[in-house]
Design a protein that fits this description.
Oligomer: single chain
Strand order of the largest sheet: 2-1-3-6-7
Structural class: alpha/beta
Strand content: 25-35%
Low-confidence stretches: 126-131
Order of helices and strands: EHEHEEEHEHEHEEEEEHEEEEEH
Mean pLDDT: 89
Amino acid sequence: MHVLLVDDEPLAREELSYLVSQHPAVTSVTQAEGVLEAMSKMMEQKPDILFLDIHLTDESGFELAEKLVNLTDPPYLVFATAYDDYALQAFQVNASDYLLKPFEEKRVMEIINKAEKQMTRKQSDPVQTTEQWATFPIHSDDRIFLINPETVQMVSVDERNVSIFTDDKCYNTTGTLSGIEQKLPPALFIKTHRSFIINATKVKEIQPWFNHTLQVTMENGEKVPVSRSYLKVFKERLNLE
């Protein structure tokens, strides 16, 4: 399991990091000292468990927790704080547990065990929620936007400049195409080129192009190439063969 710790106190982060890493199911631990840094870390790799302090420098952990409420598959949220009078508010934003400072190893292990059991139940649940897709965060224009994958028409990349075209807006951010691809449901999206991913349900028109390739026109009018490397998979996916 991947764990993210959010606390503005370095010593508290290091202590909790050490305790968390003792659990055999924990494969990696990442740290952040504020909400924006935490969102950035979450964009790089979705945490399975999030330990979140309430009183951060000039901000509140509840700001991040309220954003997580909109996610279909949020991380296992644990408030890790020195204050016991926020428990009710914590559970109102769907917190799964509440850890008080100073941290006790036994209590930390109990929380991770509970999170592991919940993840196991989710993975064994035969019910597939294919009609609801988890929103994913994008850092653009010094803000965090939560994007519904169903509204995304296409994604393009030029070096590390990523453009995400939705039904009504284009979001510009930095990163890699593979990084964005990991956040998108494969049931909806297909890669057509090393620089492009499209929503297969948003294709308006397909035209023959140079050297036996294809060009796709999306519903928003954007043109997207289908390179020879991805042509076979693209045709199979859209039942063109």
